[in-house]
Design brief:
This protein has 13 helices and 16 strands. By secondary structure, it is of the alpha+beta class. The longest helix is centred in the last third of the chain and has 34 residues. The chain is globular, with a radius of gyration of 22 Å.
């Protein structure tokens, strides 16, 4: 499988599967001297993990990460105070699968003869044959995106040191859409939503806040604790604080399920999603991803235009379209309407609009970089569908019985912002290197 690698300078390689022992991500290009902990990684992973709310799969995978390589195991010299710092070597994170049981494996075994319409199960069988990792859809399950979120956390941490903020929010779900959004307010809402999720996540509180897993433990010590946690998942989950939507909105100013800066519209989104779910069907939507603070000039012409590189957002499962800026709406504009006209004030360039999404000619303009992904409905649904027996080629019917997400939109946004962060960081490092070389040549 050769498609599991990303990047030119900031490089990410991922592996594992939905029902294998776990998943892994290895990152190259992480600078030395950063303090990255498993608790911090988990603060992003918990946003994507299943079993967290009514719009996610009932599978209760904690998505607890283990930093396996890339940090100093001790101070490099006595008193250096650099234990736990990144050291420039490949940074590897493991994410064990803890909530996989025979009853669920048996459900997949019973239905794997009949590919799920809308899913990769037929095409992957043709490509990889009978040894295709079809239990839980293997590497074609959304489960693999945990590796992307782990890598994206690291990328966003590095970008943050450069004054760049990357975040996302749900723009549309089940046909309900939020239109005009103040990006600074959206950023504040996003931060508050993340804080709420950490405060209310029982694994965050029981495993990390109470230091059951901590930075002093060696890998094998952590694995012994993971073996215990595997048998305690339901008990830990039962310790979750009761979520009162009104309390969440009053204290954090956010919706209790949907990461949307307008909590009232989020209520409508949730209502419409639930209506569709009750019919046994699923729904789709759209996520907007934003980068604030990116300097002008980042990107390369022709084959590595910044907006072209952002097209890799299509690599996320269930994403069927990517737009930058005004996107498809430009077809209905005139040139005058589409152009982001400029003026100068206080020694800075000002733009009248941002239809280009912060990118022209493949280079950043200094404006917010804005992209949107369009997400299809979850293909696994509880309705009978025509399919075939992939071994006998006989026509048959399939009614899904496996665990599934009512909508993917509610969990895909942490993946989207992670991919954007990886793309921007990969380009930013190249940009800084190029600018440094220009300075050297001019000396």
């Amino acid at each position: 499988m050769i498609g599991c690698h990303f990047g030119r300078i900031f490089q990410v390689t991922v592996g594992g599967g939905s029902y294998q022992d776990g998943l892994n991500t290895t990152i190259q290009g992480v600078p030395p001297g950063m303090k990255i902990t498993e608790q911090e990684l988990y603060s992003d992973l918990l946003l994507r993990k299943p079993g967290a709310d009514e719009l996610s799969s009932p599978r209760v995978e904690p998505d607890l990460p283990v930093i396996y390589a890339g940090i100093n195991a001790a101070d490099t010299i006595e008193g250096a105070d650099n234990k736990g710092h990144t050291n420039g070597t490949p940074f590897t994170v493991l994410i064990p699968n803890l909530d996989r049981h025979f009853i669920h494996i048996k459900q997949y075994q019973d239905t794997n003869r009949t590919p799920r319409p809308g899913h990769a199960s037929y095409a992957s069988f043709i490509k990889y044959g009978p040894d295709d990792d079809a239990i839980g859809a293997g590497f074609f399950s959304g489960r693999y995106t945990a590796t992307i979120v782990a890598a994206g956390h690291v990328a966003r941490r590095i970008l943050g040191k450069c004054g760049i903020r990357v975040f996302s929010y749900i723009k549309e779900a089940a046909g309900v859409r939020v239109d005009s959004v103040d990006l600074e307010k959206a950023w504040e809402s996003y931060q508050q939503y993340k804080q709420y999720r950490c405060d209310y996540d029982p694994f965050y509180q029981e495993i990390y806040v109470k230091e059951r897993i901590n930075t002093e433990q060696r890998f094998l010590e952590k694995m012994a604790i993971f073996a215990q946690i595997e048998n305690e998942i339901q008990d830990i989950r039962a310790k979750a604080r009761e979520v009162d939507p009104a309390v969440i909105r009053d204290k954090y100013g956010v919706h209790h399920v949907i990461n949307c800066p307008d909590a009232d519209i989020a209520d409508e989104m949730l209502e419409e999603c639930n209506k569709i779910t009750k019919t046994g069907d699923s729904s789709g939507g759209q996520v907007e991803v934003v980068a604030l603070g990116l300097p002008a000039g980042v990107g390369e012409p022709v084959f590595h235009k910044l907006d072209g590189d952002l097209g890799i957002l299509m690599s996320i499962g269930a994403v069927k379209a990517v737009e930058v800026g005004a996107g498809m709406a430009v077809k209905d504009m005139t040139g005058y309407d589409s152009n982001d006209r400029m003026s100068a004030a206080d020694g800075k360039i000002r733009f009248d609009s941002n239809n280009a999404g912060g990118i022209t000619g493949g280079l950043s303009t200094g404006q917010p970089v804005i992209a949107r992904i369009t997400v299809k409905p979850t293909p696994t649904i509880d309705r009978e569908q025509n399919t075939v027996d992939k071994y006998t080629m006989e026509n048959t019917q399939l009614s899904a019985i496996t665990r599934r997400d009512p909508t993917i939109v509610g969990r895909i946004w942490p993946v989207a912002e992670s991919v954007m962060a990886m793309v921007i960081l990969d380009n930013l490092i190249a940009h800084y290197g190029y600018q440094a070389m220009i300075q050297k040549v001019a000396e």
